[in-house]
Amino acid sequence: MSLLPRRRFLRRFGLGLAVSALPGRRWRETILWEAAAATPDAPAVVTLSLADFPALGSDLGSVRLTVNPVGPDHFPRGNIYPFLVNRVSEGVFRAMSAECRHAGCVVESYDELSEGIRCPCHGSVYDITGQRIVGPAPDGSSLGPLPLIYDGIGSLQVTIPGLAFRIAPSRVDLGGGGGRLRLQFPTLPWVTYEVHFRERVSDPGLPVPFSSSPEGPPDQWTVTGDELPATVYVAPPGGSGFFEISMLLLEE
Ligand code: FES
């Protein structure tokens, strides 16, 4: 999200607006991470709580995360490749794209038994750091590294390109002093979006229902992206606060 519409919105309507991603594991579990995009062109920074990923509690643990599913052909159903977060050793983590360097299939998470990250398409294998070990991926290649910061306590910040987006808020007057907030944002195919609300930036965001028309009943909770802009209408719950457009995250 651009900071510009956020500031403009704060001035005009007295409500805040933030854009972030609040995914749920396999579509149903609790919020695992939050991504906030500073500008439309900036990559999103995803914060992961280690407590939410037991696999990362031991060395050689590995998780694969994505905002759009992976198809049976082993390619993303959508625009965004999954990414891996691997624990190399105590306090040492690596994040990397799951795009195989041979022909672009989505690789699996690190498998301790076979000691590698395997590509299901033609058998390339990478080590825990993403370096190719064997297979048709080019010699010396590695899975695309993603910037990762470990706070030394319990959270990781991973920078994910391609997730940032701009949101355009505007007010819709319905007469009688009533009104709704219209939120427009671009969508990525197969990504599921929710609207969250928080009173303070530091609060956890809670999903709120919305409608797809200015006067329709607010009885929808998710939008599945199709590469076209989405428009949703929410009723400000009173007082001030922040609406967010959130993405759901899958752990596969
Ligand atoms: S696409 Fe991964 S080995 Fe061919």
Concise structural overview:
The protein has one helix and 21 strands. The protein is mainly β and about 250 residues long.
Question: How would you describe the overall organization of this protein?
Answer:
- By secondary structure, the chain is mainly beta.
- It folds into two domains: 3-40 and 164-251, no CATH class; 45-154, Rieske [2Fe-2S] iron-sulphur domain (Rieske Iron-sulfur Protein), CATH 2.102.10.10.
- Helix content is 4%, strand content 36%.
- The strands form five sheets. Strands 1, 16, 17, 18 and 20 form a five-stranded mixed sheet that branches. A five-stranded antiparallel sheet has the order 2-3-4-13-12, with no helix packed on it. Strands 11-7-6-5-21 form a five-stranded antiparallel sheet, with no helix packed on it.
- Strand 14 and strand 15 form a beta hairpin.
- The chain starts with a helix and ends with a strand.
- 38% of the residues are buried.
- Mean pLDDT is 77; it is low at 1-39.
- Residues 100, 102-105, 119, 121-124, 135-137 line the site of FE2/S2 (inorganic) cluster.
Chain-wise SSE layout:
Elements (H helix, E strand, L loop, with lengths): L2 H11 L2 E2 L2 E2 L11 E4 L7 E6 L12 E5 L16 E7 L2 E6 L19 E2 L6 E2 L5 E3 L10 E2 L1 E3 L4 E6 L7 E8 L2 E8 L6 E7 L7 E2 L15 E2 L5 E5 L7 E6 L2 E2 L1
Parallel strand pairs: 1-20
Antiparallel strand pairs: 2-3, 3-4, 4-13, 5-6, 5-21, 6-7, 7-11, 8-9, 9-10, 12-13, 14-15, 15-19, 16-17, 16-18, 16-20
Bound molecules: FE2/S2 (inorganic) cluster.
